[in-house]
Amino acid sequence: QSVLTQPPSVSATPGQTVTISCSGTPSNIGTNFLFWYQQFPGTAPKLLIFRNDQRPSGVPDRFSGSKSGTSGSLAISGLRSEDEADYYCAAWDDRLSVWVFGGGSKLTVL
Amino acid sequence: EVQLLESGGNLVRRGESLKLSCAASGFTLRSSAMSWVRQAPGKGLEWVSASSGDGGSTDYIDSVKGRFTISRDNSKNTLFLQMNSLRGEDTALYYCVKMEVRMGNAFHFWGQGTMVIVSS
User: Fold this and answer.
1) Binding-site residues on chain B for chain A (CB distance < 8 A)
2) How many angstroms separate the CA atoms of B54 and B31, rounded?
3) Which chain B residues contact residue A89 at CB under 8 A?
4) Does residue A65 belong to the interface with chain B, where contact is any CB pair within 8 Å?
5) Which of A66, A69, B47, B53 has the least CB density, counted as fewest CB within 10 Å?
6) What is the pLDDT of residues A38-56, one digit of tens each?
7) Among A18, A9, A19, A22, which Cα is nearest to A102's?
8) ∠B16-B39-A106 over CA atoms, to 5°?
9) Tens digit of pLDDT for each residue in B30-65?
């Protein structure tokens, strides 16, 4: 069982906006930055969002992150078929002194 | 261009040891905190260990403390993970990851991974 809680799967149709939630505790998301990673099958994860809501160079602005209290979310607008992937949230946990990940959310574009 | 090339993964028996290597290029290793993150087959991501730029500070997940050791040879731009007393639950693809301080210590660049299989 992961320390951060994500829905196992989400789905939407092309062009729609989908939101993936990530729930934590005061010792991780409540205190520290939230990050999001995208992973396609058979490939290494890629950094999508850092410091809660910042995008690395090259990540489209269709991807946006937010955080409030002990939860955060990743929103993908203008959904495309190529966005089908697994998405993971992550944060440092002050109480456990480890990096913790969510269990991952599989996005299906219908 | 940042590149991370892991090696050393193999099929081993429970209780045996293995040493993973990560050859870094495109940046100066001693300037970067680094981590190992693993992914069991069909499962999610799990952070394993981290090392500060000079190697003086290290962290580990509880399940590998006392068994795994992260180290680095900054003169050769190489990161290591010594894995002893391997268990079945250590079976995973191990990624070498460059962390970015200016991004809040994000896991910025990832290698392609090296596979470790522990058989009983």
Assistant:
1) 35, 37, 44-47, 50, 59, 61-62, 95, 100, 103-108, 110-113
2) 8
3) none
4) no
5) A69
6) 999 999 999 999 999 999 9
7) A22
8) 160
9) 999 999 999 999 999 999 999 999 889 999 999 999
